[in-house]
């Protein structure tokens, strides 16, 4: 290298690599940003939860959207079915679990599947749901706790290398080991004097659909739409006032030069109560003129409100008609496309969050308790526990848009070998063995009673006339 080369400038690059989203400049000067997921969600969860509860209780669009999500996620219940290899044991497990499920609620107000719906609703509105598994003399019970009962103010280090974050205790390896639960709601009188109870992690189910890695507490699913809901509420209030004002028809008598003669009408607090009558030509006293109010009505607001409702539906992740209830512009194609995408989204949450975090742990804990209590005979449970605890969980089926076409498509897939009957029945929310048993029982009963509901089998062949070929 020559000495002069040290003083040479590098030539400007012909091209530069960059992400516009990471660039600076005037266009990004006022743009907000999002920090680390853990601290951001911890700081925002409580105020967002409070606002979400308000709008779900008071805003019809929010209430409708949340109801659609709860109905789609759990519906009448995500039903488990034992996968034990022995048919007799499968039946025994199913019967024992069904009996327990009827009394699973610690408060005695609903059953297991009602608790599923309540927990799903809490996960959506509050961002998380806590189910406490209580061991009682008469078996296991489940109690749904409000999110604020897990002490959000409890964050500290522990001497054993563990730590507590927002009421959830972790060991040194970062695994959840306990939950610190308040003895009373924070809003209760003298709640701060009651303290907390340390509940082992195996006795608490935390249902949450996280936004990202490092998130400890949940954030309401309504977070993306809260500001829009608030603005829409204010807009509707303003429009309602505007419509009321526009509907007011008032006349003003103007004394043009201050010499108007008395007017023949009653005067109450400066308001002449004499009204107008159809077909009347009213003669005004000399010096008076009359002017009528012409309030302006808001224009082009319907499309704007519809746009806002569609944005709210998109923020919740549900089809717009499930939020607005408006099917005027819907057709078969649009409904099917929207519901298929909605079903895919629900299945991702069902099989990625709801079943592994709530349904599967409840099944395993309940079946184990039934066996240990002697309510379910299983002499080889200790040696073959995985077989006794194996289960499939079936979410409720999504409603068909066009049953004839949907059934025909399933039939074609079965005949073409593209799916099994077990898969087809599971997509309808049922267990194939239970379905086959019910069909066999129906056929046996029909044969015993001499009835047949199969139209093709019941229709006799047409008789040929004598002499016909």
Automatic annotation (TrEMBL):
Q: Which InterPro entries match?
A: Phage_lambda_portal
Check the record and name the Pfam families matching this protein: Phage_portal_2
Q: Please give the biological process terms from Gene Ontology that the record holds.
A: virion assembly
- Note down the stretches annotated as region Disordered: 17-41
- What would you give as a GO molecular function for this chain, any one? structural molecule activity
> What name goes with this protein?
Phage portal protein, lambda family
Lineage of source species = Bacteria, Pseudomonadati, Pseudomonadota, Alphaproteobacteria, Rhodobacterales
């Amino acid at each position: 290298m020559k000495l002069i080369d040290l003083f040479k400038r590098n030539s400007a690059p012909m091209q530069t690599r960059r992400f516009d989203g990471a660039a600076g400049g005037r266009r990004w000067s006022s743009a907000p940003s999002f920090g680390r997921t853990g601290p951001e969600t911890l700081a925002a969860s409580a105020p967002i939860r409070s606002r979400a509860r308000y709008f779900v209780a008071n805003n019809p669009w929010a209430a409708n959207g949340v109801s659609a999500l709860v109905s789609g996620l759990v519906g009448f219940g995500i039903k488990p079915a034992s996968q034990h290899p022995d048919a007799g044991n499968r039946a025994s497990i199913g019967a024992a679990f069904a009996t327990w499920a009827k009394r699973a609620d610690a408060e005695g107000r609903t059953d297991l599947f009602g608790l599923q719906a309540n927990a799903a609703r809490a996960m959506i509105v509050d961002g998380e749901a806590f189910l406490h598994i209580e061991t009682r003399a008469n078996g296991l019970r489940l109690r749904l706790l409000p999110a604020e009962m897990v002490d959000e103010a409890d964050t500290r280090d522990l001497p054993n290398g563990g730590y507590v974050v927002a009421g959830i205790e972790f060991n040194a390896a970062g695994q959840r080991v306990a939950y610190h639960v308040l003895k009373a709601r924070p809003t209760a009188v003298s709640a701060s004097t009651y303290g907390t109870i340390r509940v082992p992690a195996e006795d608490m189910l935390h249902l949450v659909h996280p936004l990202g890695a490092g998130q400890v507490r949940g954030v309401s699913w309504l977070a993306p739409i809260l500001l829009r809901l608030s603005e829409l509420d204010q807009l509707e209030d303003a429009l309602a006032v505007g419509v009321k004002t526009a509907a007011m028809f008032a006349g003003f008598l103007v004394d043009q030069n201050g010499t108007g003669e008395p007017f023949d009408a009653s005067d109450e607090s400066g308001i002449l109560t004499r009204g107008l009558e159809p077909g009347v030509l009213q003669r005004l006293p000399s010096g008076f003129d009359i002017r009528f109010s012409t309030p302006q009505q808001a224009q082009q607001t319907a499309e704007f409100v519809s746009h806002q409702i569609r944005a709210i539906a998109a923020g919740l992740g549900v089809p717009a008609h499930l939020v607005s209830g408006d099917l005027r512009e819907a057709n078969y194609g649009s409904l099917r496309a929207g519901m298929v995408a909605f079903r895919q989204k629900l299945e991702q949450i069902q099989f990625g969050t709801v079943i592994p975090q709530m349904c599967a742990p409840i099944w395993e804990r309940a079946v184990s308790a039934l066996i240990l209590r002697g309510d379910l005979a299983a002499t080889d449970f200790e040696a073959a526990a995985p077989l006794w605890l194996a289960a499939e969980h079936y979410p409720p089926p999504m409603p068909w848009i066009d049953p004839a076409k949907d059934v025909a498509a399933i039939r074609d897939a079965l005949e073409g070998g593209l799916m099994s009957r077990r898969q087809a029945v599971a997509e309808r929310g049922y267990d194939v063995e239970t379905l086959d048993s019910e069909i066999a029982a129906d056929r046996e009963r029909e044969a015993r009673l001499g009835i047949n509901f199969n139209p093709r089998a019941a229709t006799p062949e047409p008789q040929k006339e004598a002499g016909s070929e």
